[in-house]
Design brief:
About 3% of the residues have low confidence. It contains 18 helices and twelve strands. The chain starts with 35 loop residues before the first helix and ends with a strand. It is an alpha+beta fold and 463 residues long.
Length: 463
Amino acid sequence: MSRNGTRTTARPGRTSADAPTGAPVAPGRVPLAGHAPRLHRDALRFVREQRHHGPVTKIYIGPRPVHVVNSGELVRDLLTAQARAFDKGAMFDALRVPLGDGLITAAGDRHLRHRRTMQPAFHHDRIARYARVMSERSLACAAAWEPGTPRDLVPEIHRLTLDILLRTLFADPQDPELRTAVKGWLGVKYRSMRLALSPLHAWAERLPLLPGWRPPDAGPLRRLVAVQHRIIGAYRADGRDRGDLLSMLLLAGGPENALTDTEVTDELITLFLAGTGTVSASLAWALYEISRRPGVQRLLHDELDTVLAGRPPAFEDVPALVRTRQVLTETLRLHPPSWLLMRRAVRPVTLGGVRLAPGAEVFFSPYALHHDPQLYEDPEHFAPDRWPLHAATKPPRHTYLPFGAGSRLCIGEDFAWTELILAVAAFTARRRLEPVASTPVRTLVGTVLRPDRLPLTAHARPS
């Protein structure tokens, strides 16, 4: 077995002749609620344990049966070879109310058209422009941290990633109504994963008038959409390319395939989700792991001293910051932001010998794959050197899924990597980080995996 996720021995397989047509039901099901209590009690342990019951298992969220795929080979089959047999699942039904119908929630031809239309906004030369904002704002945030002063970086990082996102989405991000609307919407969207895993939500699909059931509040989305329509109207009247992501969305596709105002607002909201929760959680976990390992910090400092030589990090430095990327690659393995992903069969399909009818729900967990000892040696251990420096940029796609895979691979993956590398460089180049020993850090399991707090102290390094 190699340390980078490529196995040297395969798991025993089944032939089509002796494969069952149904999946075993995972232990722990209770009446009415199904497996939801176990998921709510310790979701990460629950998804890790599924591999002990088979490559595909069945769980219940209330009355709703769900097939859980626990094998890297079958996840690859689900996301690539048989991808056309599946679309988005229950979580995305719940997300559609607070998030609209952008790339994250869109299905079928709509998803493919929007992805092709949006791709130019994430080309290399555009990310180079955005990188200047990423570096400047990260350096400004780090500079405000007084040496020797303990600080909880979680709220700081949330503000930083939102600031970067607004400054890359909009040439003039200072509209006070925009910031207020975005913050109001962010408070609602974190409920979406809880809804998807709620037995009450599942029962409400069968009993729509179930007492006590309340769908997500659509008010924050309506307010955000109204502000965005006003901004889009001003952009269309002006007609210029302002160098920001919104300009690219409005110019993309040409006259024949241009996005409507409603489609543009849906995609902006998709970017708000991906560019805040995912990136902020990943940056927080990276600084957490770095702060606890003096040896890792020394290697990073050596690299940053050599590559940057005292100047601010820039887009051109990203390829040379190989150890920084190595640390981030391991951070995203140990703490993948998207811990649980969902699909729904749209036609009859067989997966791992299990026959799925149209409408069958499927879960798979990047977190469980990343913590599988048959895929990663000593998986609970933070070991950046498990990724050879030349391989840290190309982890195995079917067993390393922080940004998804296949046609649903995150369109902003290169944007996120650039932001994370530049931000880590900004926070660590001139500082030695230490955890505040008396304050434990817990993992919050929601739409993303994030730390509940990040109390650190920064000590100045010699210039």
